[in-house]
Amino acid sequence: MALKSTDMAKNMAKKLDGSLKSESLPDRFGQASKAASSKRERAATIPASKLVSVNYRLPAELVNRLRDQALNHEGGINLLVATALNEWLDTQVKK
Predict the structure, then answer these.
(1) Is residue 86 included in any domain, yes or no?
(2) How many structural domains are present in the chain?
(3) Does the residue 82 lie in any domain?
(4) How far apart are CA 20 and CA 35, in angstroms?
(5) b vs e for 68-90, b when ≥16 Cβ sit within 10 Å of the residue's Cβ?
(6) Alpha helices of the chain — where are they, by DSSP H?
(7) Residue 91 within any structural domain of the chain
(8) pTM (2 decimals)?
(9) In contact, 50 and 44? CB cutoff 8 Å
(10) 67: which residues sit within 8 A by CB, 6+ positions away?
(11) Do 38 and 52 touch, CB atoms closer than 8 A?
């Protein structure tokens, strides 16, 4: 049984639509170069030591004070907390 011309057009449209959805955008449109440059910039800002994320539960009042201090601190909240922890650990007596 032969296909009608409208059925053939529908099938061709489905095939074309499927191939367009499966392809990614070519690199020539600049998206790849943006991603590569932003990765390089991020890698340059991260120090040689690897950063590790840590989760702790703190009182809300302490967190609010910490955020207020971090607004005025040059390195942000991460550097502020790291500095405070280093200073505190340095004052502790090693047994």
Answers:
(1) yes
(2) 1
(3) yes
(4) 22
(5) eebeeeeeeeeebbeeeeeeeee
(6) 5-22, 31-45, 60-72, 76-91
(7) yes
(8) 0.45
(9) no
(10) 77
(11) no
**Low pLDDT (below 70) residues in the chain:** 1, 24-49, 95
Residue 50: φ, ψ to 5°: -80, 135
Asked if the structure places residue 76 within a domain, the reply is: yes
Angle value at C-alpha 91, between 86 and 93, nearest 5 degrees: 120
Residue-range definition of the domain harbouring residue 70? 58-95
- For residue 42, the model assigns a pLDDT of 65
Residue 86 CA to residue 88 CA, distance in Å, equals 5
The answer to whether 84 touches 69, Cβ cutoff 8 Å, is no
Secondary structure class of 25 (helix, strand, coil): coil
C-alpha dihedral sign at 57, 82, 89, 65: negative
8 Å CB contact between 13 and 6: no
